[in-house]
Amino acid sequence: MMWRKPDSPPAQDRFEEWFNRKRQESVLGGQIETPQGPHPDDSFLRDLARKSKNINLTDPRVDHAASCPVCIRRLLAFKNVKGTTTRRVALTAIIACCVLVAVTFVWLSSRKSREIGPTPNIAAVSSTVDLFNAGSYRGDQPAPLQSVSLPAALVKVTVVLPRYSTPGQYVVAVTRDQSGSNPVAKGVGPAVGDGSRELVTVTLDLRSATTGPHFLSTMREQDQASYYYPLDIQ
After folding, report:
1. Is the pTM of this model over 0.85?
2. Domains recognised in the chain with CATH numbers
3. Strand-pair category, 197-205 with 192-194
4. Is there a contact between 220 and 161 (Cβ–Cβ < 8 Å)?
5. What is the pLDDT of residues 89-133, one digit of tens each?
6. In terms of C-beta distances under 8 Å and separation of at least 24 residues, what long-range contacts does 17-26 make, across chains too?
7. Across the strands, what pairs with 190?
8. Is the Cα dihedral 190, 193, 194, 197 positive or negative?
9. What is the per-residue pLDDT for 21?
10. Could you tell me if residue 51 is left (phi over 0), alpha (psi between -120 and 50 degrees) or otherwise beta?
11. 174: enclosing H helix or E strand
């Protein structure tokens, strides 16, 4: 079995250990005296305070700095500057992240609220669309059509479904064409019987819709077949 030499501690730990031992020896010996010779320059002391790997612990300037009260004060000043800068950078990064998260949250909340529908503080305009005797387009098959209209507003619309419509869950949408893609607005609601008629009430947000010709479509979810009626947004 081969004995493996333990990994040597990092330069930072070796510096701390040496520095503490040097100071303890000086204090216990009662021989803390200002060493002779010039003081190390700021560049060297700054690297020493930052525990740079380029510092050689056998450099006599290190021994001078560890034994000189003047150099010790300068070292502590450089350490404080480094700590303050690091904390400032970290704080700036945290604030930037918080701002980014807040902006993203507001954007997502705004987008979700637009997708879900109107806010409860906005009063919807009530309107009724009577399709009981209306013809429609189903797929590409034309039929006599009756034009209906809705205002460019938040509308709570009650749709009287065509004769012989069956109960179920209905999707009511406003589209620009008969493809049904990218609806301007849509709502889902159950058909409620009213004598011989079936009524569906949904809320459609048409505030951003352009005025002019559109299509109103109805689709029973169980059938997945859409019927289109000419619609004029005013």
Report:
1. no
2. 9-116 (no CATH), 125-233 (2.60.40)
3. antiparallel
4. no
5. 677 777 777 778 777 777 776 665 554 444 456 788 898 898 888
6. 18/57, 19/66, 22/63, 22/66, 22/67, 23/66, 26/67
7. 169
8. positive
9. 63
10. left
11. strand 169-175
